[in-house]
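Person: I keep going back and forth on a fold encoding question. Show me how you would write down a chain together with its backbone fold. Please set it down just below, with no commentary around it:
Helper:
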Amino acid sequence: MDAPLPSGTTRRRVELRIVKPPFAWGARPTVTVDGVGQPAQWGTGTWAVPDAGGSTIGVYLFNRVWRFGAASVVVGPTAQVVEYRAGLLPFARGRLVVR
């Protein structure tokens, strides 16, 4: 697997909206871009993705005890906005939707 490019070398960004569920169970979201994980916050943010081709964006929640709500989607070169919604219960899967 190739190493990710250094920060500032990509011109393409995707807006990621992470919607907090009614019961977050003290969980924090983690975003993965092509397998590289980065801690995130609830709300809207932008993430750098490679300029060419599709990229896999994933989100999961972690609350110091277990990991849950995992979801992933492949975004194409024209994707601008991706929205993540966690399941209502901690064992349910999350949903990632390209808008």
User: Anything to note?
Assistant: The first strand starts at residue 13 and ends at 19. Residues 12 and 51 are 5 Å apart (CA to CA).
